[in-house]
Structures are given as structure tokens and as C-alpha cells.
UniProtKB/TrEMBL annotation:
Record's subcellular location: Cell envelope
Listed SUPFAM superfamilies: HlyD-like secretion proteins (SSF111369)
Protein name, entry field: Secretion protein HlyD family protein
Cellular component, GO annotation: cell envelope
Key words, A-Z: Coiled coil
Organism: Rhodopirellula maiorica SM1
InterPro entries: HH_YbhG-like, UPF0194_transport
Primary location class: other
Domain YbhG-like alpha-helical hairpin: 105-220
Coiled-coil ranges per UniProt: 96-147
């Protein structure tokens, strides 16, 4: 019973004290917020719009992932390194893709050779050989014809049997067919290529060219290159690690930090009061005072639900906002992604 009474007494004493402390803290926080806005307004000598934002480069952060599923072979960059557009950042194992490209190149050469042979026709030596074979077949046919004619005369006098005459006739027919085949082959070799044969040959070459291009594209995808000049912000990869386009995290994050910018989300109540050319002041919890100054250079035309929050008292969270881009002074050196508070001058 005494313990219960003691507990009640402690609660009655502590709760009011905690409420007083919380009210004082909120009041002090509100005063600090007003002081921040007043300080910035005095610095800019005008009324300002306050917005949450973050530091970005000339471009937003660029997430780079592998476009094929393969093991990581080499990592060519480190965090903080500056790279130029097209520079190789990371290489995947490309031995299989290289062999596929070589195979496609060989197939293309073979199809081109077939097409060229069709265009050029047969060699003169091949045509001459076919011509001699035809003449030989004709000579054998003439000899068989004479032999048969003599056999017919001899059979009339019963000098040879009918069986022998029939064999002569069979040989004559065989040699006639041989001569006709030799003549057709010679004519075929001497004729120009047919249109449908040329169309088929050209189609085969185009198909081989496409296979080679596909193989080259796959081979090129084994290397991750910089899409633009910029600084490497993060490298999340290890040699030998398996990666794929569906990986949750990007292998490399980069951004063009040659011109630092701040992106702010302006509340819908103030969205129409922001114009290009307005002066801005940048502050952050990471440092006292104004970190940098800049100028509004771009205002996005689309309103979206608010995604960046300043965590200050009275901030509207369930609202739409308009993104504003601000070029910072060249002398400023701030880390990309730093959360900041942005104060935009209004006329």
C-alpha cells in the first residue's frame, strides 16, 4: 500500500515537470526557427521562402548497374575519383562473349565469301573442265551411235544376236543422258547468277551482320562506362562477385560535381512565388551560419507529393511540392546528398 502511494506521488510530481520542460523546448525550438529565418532574411535583406533540400551535382546521382549477368572481373575506379565520359569503370568476365563475337565475325566472312563467289561466277578453269567433259560425252555418244547402227545392219543378216543389239541400245541411251547432263552443267556454269540466288545471298549476309552486331553489343555490355564526366561517389562491388541487372544496389554511383547544385522542394503554397534568378541562402545542421549562396536556375513544371522534409516545427508534410534547382557558388565544396535548408529570396 505504501509503495502504491509513493508511486502516485512520484507520478504527480514528475509529469507536470516533464510537461513544463517540453513546452519550454518547443518554445525554444520555435524561437530558433524564427531566428534562423530572421537571420537569413536580414542577410538577404528581403523576405524568404524556406524549403527542405539536398546538395546535388550538375546531374542527380547516376546509378550504374550491370546490363548482363556475369562475374566482376576488374574494378578500375575508386571512390572520389574523377572520370571522363566513356571511361571504363568496371569490367565483367567477357571470355564467353568474346568468343561469341569472334564466331559471329567468322560466320559473316563465310556468308560474304559465298555472295562474292556467286557474283563472280565460276572460275574459267571450271568452265573449261565442264566444256571438255561435255565434248568427251558427245564423242562417246557418237561412237555408241555408230556402233548401234552397225549392229542394226548385222542383226538384219542374223550376224549378231538380239541380246547384243539390245545392250548396244542401252549403252546408247546411257551415253545420251550423260551428254545431256554434261551440256546442262556447262550451260549452268556459263550463265549469270539468278536474281533469287543473289537475294538469298544478300539476306544471309545481312543476317550474319546482325548476329555480329548483337554479339558486339553483348560484349560491350561487359564493361560499365561513365555516361558523362563526373566523380565516383560510391563503389559497391568486389572482384569475383556475381552481378546482374536485377541487383538491388547499383555497382557504382556517380555525379557530375563540376558544378554543385541544391535541389529544393518548395511547398505548394509558395510554388508560384519562385522564379528563375532569385537569390538563395543554404544552411545545414552540419554547420553554423550560411554554408553557401546561389541562384535559382531551373524550376520543374510538374508538382509531386513532397519527399524531402526539413523536420522543423510547423512543416507541412502531406502536401505537394515543386522542385527547384539552384546553382551554388563555385568556391563551395559540399558532399553530394547533404540535407540542407534553403531560403529563397522573394520580391
Amino acid at each position: 500500500m505504501k509503495l502504491f502511494i509513493s508511486t502516485i506521488v512520484v507520478v504527480l510530481v514528475c509529469v507536470p515537470a516533464l510537461l513544463v520542460y517540453e513546452n519550454q523546448r518547443q518554445s525554444q525550438l520555435s524561437d530558433n526557427i524564427r531566428m534562423d529565418a530572421t537571420e537569413v532574411s536580414r542577410s538577404l535583406d528581403t523576405v524568404v521562402i524556406r524549403a527542405a533540400g539536398r546538395i546535388e551535382g550538375r546531374t542527380e546521382q547516376i546509378d550504374l548497374r550491370a546490363r548482363i549477368a556475369e562475374q566482376i572481373d576488374q574494378i578500375h575506379v575508386t571512390q572520389g575519383q574523377w572520370v571522363e565520359a566513356g571511361e571504363v569503370l568496371l569490367s565483367l568476365d567477357s571470355e564467353l562473349l568474346l568468343q561469341e563475337r569472334n564466331l559471329a565475325a567468322a560466320m559473316l566472312e563465310m556468308e560474304e565469301a559465298k555472295k562474292e563467289r556467286l557474283e563472280n561466277g565460276y572460275r574459267p578453269s571450271e568452265i573449261e573442265t565442264a566444256k571438255q567433259e561435255y565434248h568427251a560425252a558427245v564423242a562417246r555418244l557418237e561412237g555408241a551411235q555408230k556402233t548401234y547402227d552397225r549392229g542394226v545392219k548385222l542383226s538384219e543378216n542374223n550376224a549378231i544376236s538380239w541380246q547384243t543389239l539390245d545392250n548396244m541400245l542401252v549403252d546408247l541411251g546411257s551415253l545420251r543422258a550423260t551428254a545431256a547432263a554434261a551440256k546442262s552443267r556447262l550451260e549452268t556454269l556459263e550463265m549469270p547468277p539468278r536474281n533469287d540466288d543473289m537475294m538469298a545471298a544478300m539476306a544471309s549476309v545481312r543476317a550474319a551482320e546482325s548476329r555480329l552486331r548483337i554479339a558486339q553489343i553483348n560484349l560491350d555490355r561487359s564493361r560499365i562506362t561513365a555516361p558523362s564526366a563526373g566523380r565516383i561517389l560510391s563503389v559497391d562491388a568486389e572482384v569475383g562477385e556475381m552481378t546482374a541487372p536485377t541487383s538491388a544496389k547499383p555497382l557504382i554511383i556517380m555525379s557530375d560535381t563540376s558544378q554543385l547544385r541544391a535541389v529544393a522542394e518548395v511547398d505548394e503554397y509558395d510554388a508560384l512565388n519562385v522564379v528563375v534568378g532569385q537569390v538563395c541562402a543554404i544552411k545545414s545542421d552540419a554547420a553554423e551560419g550560411i554554408l553557401a549562396k546561389g541562384e535559382v536556375v531551373e524550376i520543374e513544371p510538374l508538382m509531386n507529393p513532397k519527399q524531402m522534409f526539413g523536420q522543423w516545427a510547423g512543416e507541412r508534410t502531406d502536401t505537394y511540392s515543386r522542385r527547384v534547382w539552384i546553382n551554388l557558388d563555385d568556391a563551395v565544396d559540399l558532399p553530394v546528398g547533404l540535407p540542407v535548408e534553403i531560403y529563397i529570396e522573394t520580391k
